[in-house]
Design goal:
alpha+beta, membrane, nucleotide-binding, globular, binds adenosine-5'-triphosphate, Transferase(Phosphotransferase), domain 1, 4 domains, SH3 type barrels, OCM_Kinase, Phosphorylase Kinase, domain 1, 25 strands
């Protein structure tokens, strides 16, 4: 970089990196004030007001001037932790996108721009009165009233929804990032920072790996390329955590280390506790926010709708202390696709199932809809061969567009080594646009249906082994005693198609029994298709680790029984023979004695085994 100037070709955000400042970085700006760059000389950091996981927050003064105008105003500056020099440009380019897209949003922190101070990226934003986190810290018990929580939730859900509509995931929703303006309205602050840093090589590997704040992170946010992808509903989990904290004053997983939280949330599938005494719609939403599979969570629009419907309602203690026992919660995954007249539909496949339970509607066309307020209603489906259209509930059917339905296993024609070749279709628009979750991708893949083809589906309970052609699988796979890959059973199919496999044929506890598999690298094994008795027996062994010891015990027992049977028959025939033969003299008596010994203690049985058998009363009849 020495002596050279590198300039960005970006039209709306032009800066050059020059040698000269302490980090060989100095931006020369050729922009108007509406552009995001702020000359570092125009920014004076005053004092630090906070320290978070991605950087420090400072109060600063921003000096703005033109020929006839000069103004100093107070702003807040988020100074990110150091990132590598060669990554700064990428980071700034990403910020520019965020900046250009989030202008004019009411419930979103106002951004002034971006600058560099001592080689560190500084995001300049409006200075607000404080955060909801600060307000909670001042309250008795550290919690807010239900009235305030409902009111703030509407502001916040609106802010998140606006950002989602502009294509941003926030990934770091928490009370400390909810700012309060002069009208006591809640504002989304600090948004987009995890994504700003995502994919950059950061000096701190801990920071690089973390795509949020552990206590508020959804299961798929931990290692999204394996447990993911992260999606809009990932923010629903963080939103739910924040609501729970505001209501209870207790941070989810308080006092636990990131590793412990990972174990609880991503592996053990535990959920934050939902406080009692909430309006049923809020409880329903919160339960939904903590669904392990993000496809089952509500979208921000659903959350906004639920909080809006409760906002302003006055709840006294007895009215609000709802008994939730026996309550059926909304299955949000069924509400995500609003059917239209003309859509092709078929009976909905149960999730992670290879075959539909019943194919009442193999395929039909929606010819009518019955509105049912906010909730899903009935539709009329015309099916070939039926005179009258069939009236079915929307939740019973799934839309099929260009032959694909959400949840199908699909393959992309153009392969990419980084991701698996097989994934799960998450959405298909009527114009053919699709999103697919793949192992190896942190976010959903966006493409067109013409790039896809159907792939084999896997379902829970199927037995699998690695394909013979796979020598180095993506994930560790155990060996079978003797040789070759072990056979495992699918315990779960993740939203990106990743298979969680257990090995019931291996004796192991807890985590050691859980493995992952790329669907592209495995093949199904079944009792029917195993050729030969040995293979069939091996398949039985894969069912449970106890099959082998049981088979050994059974074999031993059979051998003993057989031994006894042969021994008995031999004894009987010997005695018969002995009776027939006239025995005379000492030599004859000795011979008879030897024969009797042979029946009571057969030489072909090991001594210890025959002892056990005789002790247990299986002594051959004399
Ligand atoms: N624009 C702002 N105006 C006023 N105060 C702010 C602003 N942004 C942040 N703060 C304050 O700074 C504190 C620390 O913020 P920061 O975002 O660094 O911490 P954090 O949210 O815990 O961490 P992080 O977002 O990095 O995970 C917040 O609690 C908030 O009170």
């Amino acid at each position: 970089m020495a002596g050279q100037a590198a300039s960005s070709q970006s039209e709306s955000f032009e800066y050059m990196l020059l040698e000269g400042d302490p980090y060989h970085l100095r931006a020369v700006v050729s922009t108007s004030l509406s552009r995001p760059w702020i000359d570092s000389n125009m920014l004076k950091l005053k004092h630090r007001i906070g320290r978070g996981s991605f950087g420090d927050v400072w109060i600063a003064t921003h000096h703005q001037h033109t020929d006839d105008y000069e103004h100093y105003h107070e702003i807040a500056v988020k100074m990110l932790y150091p990132i590598k020099d060669d990554q700064i440009q990428t980071c700034l380019a990403k910020f520019e996108k965020i900046f250009s897209k989030c202008q004019g949003l009411e419930n979103v922190c106002f951004l002034h721009g971006v600058s560099l101070q001592n080689g560190r990226v500084c995001i300049a934003m409006k200075y607000y009165e404080g955060s909801i986190g600060d307000k909670m810290a001042r309250q008795k018990g550290g919690k807010l009233s239900l009235f305030d929580v409902l009111r703030y939730s509407v502001n916040l859900a609106q802010g998140v929804l606006d950002l989602h509509r502009r294509g941003f995931l926030l990934l770091n929703l928490k009370p400390c990032n909810f700012l309060l303006d002069e009208h006591d309205q809640a504002i989304i602050g600090d948004f987009g920072i995890p994504l700003l840093l995502h994919g950059l090589t950061l000096p701190s590997s801990d920071l690089a790996q973390r795509l949020g704040t552990p206590n508020y992170m959804a299961p798929e946010q931990w290692e999204p390329s394996i447990n993911g992808p992260i999606s809009l509903e990932t923010d629903s989990w963080g939103f739910g955590c924040s609501i729970v904290e505001m209501l209870s004053g207790v941070q989810p997983w308080r006092g636990k280390s990131p590793d412990e939280i990972y174990q609880l949330v991503a592996i053990k599938k535990e959920k934050p506790n939902i406080p009692r005494g909430l309006p049923p719609k809020v409880v329903d939403i919160l339960y939904g926010c903590f669904e392990y599979d993000f496809r089952d969570r509500p979208l921000m629009m659903d959350i906004l709708r639920a909080f809006k419907s409760c906002e302003g309602a006055v709840f006294n203690k007895s009215d609000s202390d709802y008994q939730m026992a026996g309550k059926h919660y909304t299955n949000w995954s069924l509400l995500k696709d609003e059917l239209q007249i003309g859509d092709t539909v078929r009976s909905r496949k149960p999730k992670n199932s290879c075959k539909p339970e019943s194919m009442e509607i193999p395929e039909g066309n929606v010819v009518g809809k019955e509105a049912d307020g906010d909730s899903i209603g009935f539709i009329l489906v015309r099916i070939h061969g039926f005179h009258n259209p069939l009236r079915v509930h929307c939740s019973m059917v799934e839309r099929v567009t260009y032959g694909f339905a959400a949840g199908d296993s699909v393959r992309v024609r153009n392969e990419d080594k980084k991701r698996s070749s097989v994934g799960i279709l998450h959405s298909i628009e009527r114009d053919g646009r699709v999103t697919v979750g793949f192992i190896g991708m942190d976010t959903l893949w966006h493409g067109h249906y013409s790039e896809l083809q159907m792939a084999e589906s896997y379902c829970v309970g199927q037995f699998l082994r690695l394909k013979a052609s796979v020598s180095s699988p993506r994930f560790e796979w155990p060996y079978k005693r003797g040789s070759g890959w072990a056979t495992g059973r699918i315990a779960e199919v993740l939203p990106n198609g990743c298979l969680v496999v257990k090995f019931p044929g291996r004796f192991s506890f807890g985590e050691a029994s859980r493995f992952l598999a790329d669907p592209w690298e495995v093949e199904v094994v079944s009792f029917k298709t195993c050729e030969g008795v040995v293979k069939k027996y091996q398949h039985l062994e894969d069912f449970h680790w106890v099959v082998r010891p049981f088979a050994i015990a059974l074999g031993l027992f059979t051998a003993l029984k057989l031994g006894l049977f042969v021994g008995k028959s031999f004894g009987k025939s010997s005695r018969k023979k002995a009776e027939k033969v006239s025995i005379s003299g000492q030599a004859g008596k000795q011979q008879q004695q030897d024969m009797q010994n042979a029946t009571t203690n057969p030489v072909w049985l090991p001594h210890s085994v025959s002892n056990i058998l005789f002790r247990e009363g299986a002594h051959p009849a004399k």
